[in-house]
Amino acid sequence: MKPWNNKAWFFVLPVLLLVAFSAIIPLMTVVNYSVQDSFGNNEFYWVGLEWFQEVLASERFHNSLMRNLLFSGIILLIEIPLGIAVALAMPRRGWGVSVCLVLMALPLLIPWNVVGTIWQVFARVDIGLLGHTLAALGVDYNYTQDTFDAWVTLIAMDVWHWTSLVVLLCYSGLVSIPDAYYQAARIDGASRWAVFRYIQLPKMRRVLVIAVLLRFMDSFMIYTEPFVVTGGGPGNATTFLSIDLVQMAIGQFDLGPAAAMSLIYFLIILVISWVFYTVMTQQDNDSVTDGRQGGGQ
Q1: Could you list the residue ranges that cross the membrane (predicted)?
Q2: What average pLDDT does the chain have?
């Protein structure tokens, strides 16, 4: 019997300590605040699930959650099909591959606060190129005063910033398809749609799972960009859960309800991501099973 070498754990130990310091300890602190209240002087008393009940019954929380779900749904409906279309249009060989990959990667390299600042200036009616152009064309556009304009601005900003991620993931799935698949499709006289439906889409299915999960989590946790561009306004039109949470914790210093909201926020992301992953991987397994049964027949 081969003896176990426990020395390898010494290489893992620094990572475990780092995770414990940066994630587990702050999480336990949040849990502690969520079940206690304080009158100051670092004196706490137990309140149990009171803060969770207060948050879940709050209309403020429900409204922010609905905004988040709506925003994430719109982002997925736009960026996933658009990313697939752009990936399909990109070249597979030649010098154009490097150029396209670099251009696709550029938006991803820009920090979130810089993206928000760029679009804040870009969309201003007085000095911004977009806002000034729309005003010159007679379009009544002002993202600081109109709710619809604010949402359009934030959605356009997110699409510009993050569609490249979907494109790169889809492109990685496309370039992994052997040329023999396309040759067989040409021999069989398959249409362009048939090639996409039965060759390209199945090969992209796994990377699409990653793309959907990443884009949902990023869009659902979005904070920096809308905070810089709209500050949650006009009114509360773009006050998502992340902005509402910061306002509650830092602006109002309601640490108990803010801690409870952050845990609920985390659980919502975890549950919805698990549902996305389960549904999409189940569809993938079903398609593989159907393909094997069809091949056996």
Answers
A1: 69-89, 101-122, 159-182, 207-224, 258-277
A2: 86
Instruction: Give the residue with greater pLDDT, 30 vs 19.
Output: 30
> Phi/psi at 45 (nearest 5 deg)?
-140, 150
Nearest to 55 by CA among 269, 241, 283: 241
Return d(Cα 239, Cα 226) in angstroms, integer. Answer: 8
Q: What is the pLDDT of residues 66-124, one digit of tens each?
A: 999 999 999 999 999 999 999 999 998 888 888 999 999 999 999 988 999 999 999 99
Cβ-contact 240, 71 below 8 angstroms: yes
218 with 162: CB under 8 angstroms? Answer: yes
d(CA 79, CA 165): 9
**CATH value of 57-281 in 3.30.410.40, 2.60.40.10, 1.10.3720.10, 3.30.1330.40:** 1.10.3720.10
| List of E strands, the chain | 36-38, 44-46
- Neighbouring-strand partners of residue 46: 36
Distance CA 174, CA 83 (A): 12
Residue pair 265/245 in contact by the 8 Å Cβ criterion: yes
Residue 254 amino acid letter: D
Nearest to 232, CA basis, from 63, 5, 72 = 63
How far is 265 from 21, CA to CA, in rounded Å? 21
- Rounded distance, CA 119 to CA 110, Å? 12
Going by the DSSP 8-state scheme, the letter that residue 4 receives in this structure is P
Measured CA to CA, the distance from residue 27 to residue 24 in angstroms comes to 5
Distance CA 149, CA 152 (A): 5
Cis check for the bond before 111: say yes or no (omega within 30 of 0). no
Question: CATH 1.10.3720.10 occupies which residues in the chain?
Answer: 57-281
